[in-house]
Amino acid sequence: MPQTILTPVHHELIIKKSRFIACIQPMPDRAGAQKIVAGLKAAHPGAAHVCWALLAGGQSAAVDDGEPSGTAGRPMLDVLRHQDLEGVLATVVRYFGGVKLGAGGLVRAYTDSVAQALLGAQKIAIIRQRHLRCDAPYPLEGLIRRELDTAGATLDAVQHADAVSFAFHLPDDKAAALIARLSEAGNGRIHWRAENDDPQADSA
After folding, report:
1. pLDDT higher than 50, residue 197
2. What percentage of the chain reaches a pLDDT higher than 70?
3. What does the alpha-carbon distance between residue 111 and residue 102 come to, in Å, rounded to a whole number?
4. Rounded to an integer, what distance in angstroms lies between the CA atom of residue 2 and that of residue 34?
5. Could you give the dihedral angle defined by the CA atoms of residues 142, 147, 150 and 156, in that order, rounded to the nearest 10 degrees?
6. What does the H/E/C string look like for the chain?
7. Does residue 87 come out as left (phi exceeding 0), alpha (psi in the -120 to 50 range) or beta?
8. Is the pLDDT of residue 196 over 60?
9. How far apart are CA 182 and CA 70, in angstroms?
10. Average per-residue pLDDT in the chain?
11. pLDDT of residue 194
12. How many CB atoms lie within 10 A of CB 99?
C-alpha cells in the first residue's frame, strides 16, 4: 500500500568535506515543490547545488541542479519509489568541499542522504477514498445517516429539497458493501449519482 510521511525529516552527511543536507517532506504537487526549492536556494546562497526529487503521480520530477546528469535527482527519486512513497519531496543541499566524488560517489551520496533521512520518518498509509452522492425520500434520512455512521463514512453535505441529497466519502474497500446495504434497505428508492475517487492519507 502506498505511503506518505507525516512530518518533515532531516539528515546531514559529510563526505570528503562536502556537506549534503537532506530534507524529506510531504508534498502533493510540483508547484509546491518548486517553492520549497526556491526557498532553499535563497537560504543557502553558498551552496553548490540544490537537488530534488518529487514523487507525486503525474507531477513527479528529478532535478540534478548542475550535478552530472543522473547522479542526484534520479537516485533520490529511486529511493522514494523503493520505499513505496507517494506525495513526498526530497531535497538535498550540497556544499562542495573541494574534492570531486565522481559519478558513482555522487550517486551513493545522494542516495544515502535520502535513505538516512527516511530512517526517522513517520509513515502513514494512503487509503483511497470513494466519494458518493445519493438522493432519497425524507422517510429514509434517518436510516441513511445511521448506515453512514456505522460504515465510518464522513458526511460532506446534506441538502433538503424535493428529496434529501447526501454527499459523503469512505474508504474505497467499504463502499460496495454500504451501497448494497442502502440499496436493499431503500427498496430501490435511493438514487445514486456520479461518484469519483480521491486518495487521502490516513494513519496506518
Report:
1. no
2. 94
3. 14
4. 23
5. -80
6. CCEEECCCEEEEEEECCEEEEEEEEECCCHHHHHHHHHHHHHHCCCCCEEEEEEECHHHCEEECCCCCCCCCHHHHHHHHHHCCECCEEEEEEEECCCCCCHHHHHHHHHHHHHHHHHCCCCEEEEEEEEEEEEEECHHHHHHHHHHHHHHCCEEEEEEECCCEEEEEEEEHHHHHHHHHHHHHHCCCCCEECCCEEEEEECCC
7. left
8. no
9. 53
10. 90
11. 65
12. 10
Q: What is the pLDDT of residue 53?
A: 97
- For the stretch 71-109, pLDDT in tens is 999 999 999 999 989 899 999 999 999 999 999 999 999
Q: Describe the crossing of helices 102-118 and 73-82 by its angle, rounded to 10 degrees.
A: 40
- Note the pLDDT of residue 199: 47
Contacts of 137 (CB under 8 A, 6+ apart): 163, 164, 189
* Identity of the residue numbered 18: S
145 vs 18: CA distance, rounded Å? 60
Q: Give tens-digit pLDDT for 16-25.
A: 999 999 999 9
What value does the mean pLDDT take over residues 172-197?
Answer: 82
First and final CA of the chain: distance in angstroms?
10
Cell of 53: 526529487
